[in-house]
Amino acid sequence: MTRRPLMADQTLFRDPDLFEITHLPEAFPYRDAQLDDLAFALRPTLSYGASPLNTVLRGIPGTGKTTAVRRIFAEAEETTQAVVPVLVSCQTEKTQYAVFSRIFLALFGHLPPPSGVSNTRLMAGVAHALVERGAVLVVCLDDANELIPDGTLGSVLAPLLRMHEAWPGARTGVVLTLSTPEADLSRALDRATRSVLQASEIVFPPYTAEEVRGILAERVRAGLYPGVMPPAVLDLVVERAMACGDLRVGLDVVKRAVRAAEREARAVVTAGDVLAAFAVSRHLHVAMAVRALTAGERAVLDAALAEEREGGPVISGRVYGRVCEGMKYTVFHERLKKLEALRLVDLYVRPGRGRTREIVVREGVEEVLGVRIRVH
Predict the structure, then answer these.
(1) CB count, 10 Å around CB of 154?
(2) CATH no., domain 288-371
């Protein structure tokens, strides 16, 4: 039976929020072992008020690390008031003061003044509050690899992990999520910080095709009306998500493909809708990285793109020449390394005198800057 065209006031979504990458699902399949390991790390805190075991969650983007932390933190808040879990996105909170401000907000319900308060005073306020409440602070630095290139990770971890030395009775612990395989804490942190961190690791392997299909099929069942996405079309979504190695791409493709069908007043999503959506969604990780750039980092990326459009190899010295006004070369170099860490550019040392670098802007960056992918 042929389905009727969609009316202007109708929608194909039962619940569009299920396809947002920030949605916290009720069911979290295929990650029971990781959830158990993370719960074990927090057991000392929940059972007898001790500091948790410091933990590192490793896995490429879209493997469930952040969702696992959000679920465990939510359960901890429901279980006891003796724990203060704080999830900090290091894609947006890039400085020591910004991270400490998020912790301050969780404890006091408001942000500290934007200036005039030192990091030491911020930590003193946090420590006193923890001691007075008898609470344990558990901080997750989500995408902690973002803080490695400029050395911020060590400056954040050291005062958190050693808080008990300056303020006896203060109890803290950290969870780090790392989304880049090359992130090396042994090099990023000094020996003293590594010795107090002593973190256990939980690995989040990439989802298999069967697992991706299971997750997407459940979201489609709960989030769309019956018949909107035929099985063969869902298979195409799974295929494209696996090509990118990121479940979030699949969720974004479903959302965009369904909206495309709605715009054309169709009640069924087609393979063409999926392919058109994938042309945008496949650069989702690039869009998220670009959104997190500071103005200075974005200026370096724009300059590299401008130099690339001139033709020929993109040499770091010429890129610096486009942005050198008001920017020291050391700062330029740090921002360039940050772009490399975010997988927006690749850097190659050219043979010859000195350490001249060639910059290669990665696929998808220019498209993202032109299309402006919306990331929630």
Answers:
(1) 18
(2) 1.10.10.10
List the beta strands (DSSP E) in the chain: 55-58, 83-89, 136-142, 171-178, 200-203, 314-315, 345-349, 357-361
State the virtual CA torsion across 8, 12, 18, 22 in degrees, nearest 10.
Answer: -40
Please give the DSSP secondary-structure letter assigned to residue 225. -
> CATH number for the 32-203 domain, one of 3.40.1800.10, 3.40.50.170, 3.40.50.300, 3.40.50.1820?
3.40.50.300
d(C-alpha 252, C-alpha 269), whole Å? 14
Pairing of strands 357-361, 314-315: antiparallel
* pTM > 0.70: yes or no: yes
In whole angstroms, give the CA distance from residue 269 to residue 257. 7
Render pLDDT for 273-321 as a digit per residue (tens, 0 to 9): 999 999 989 888 788 788 878 888 899 999 999 999 888 889 998 999 9
What residue type is assigned to position 191 of the chain?
A: R
